[in-house]
Amino acid sequence: MNILVCVKAVPDFDQVFPFGKLAEGDFDPLDSVDDDMDLYMNRFDEPAVEEAVLIKQKSPATMIDIVSMGPKGAQKTIKRAIGMGADHGIHLQSSYKQACDAMQTAQAMATIAARKSYDLILTGVMSEDLMQFQVGPMLARLLEIPWATAVTRVDLDTEKHIISVEQELEGGAKAFLELNLPALVTIQTGINIPRYPSLSNMLRANKIDLETYKADSIETGEKTFRIAGYSVPEKKRAGLVIDGTPQEKAEKLMQMLKQKSLLP
Question: pTM for the full model?
Answer without folding.
Answer: 0.82
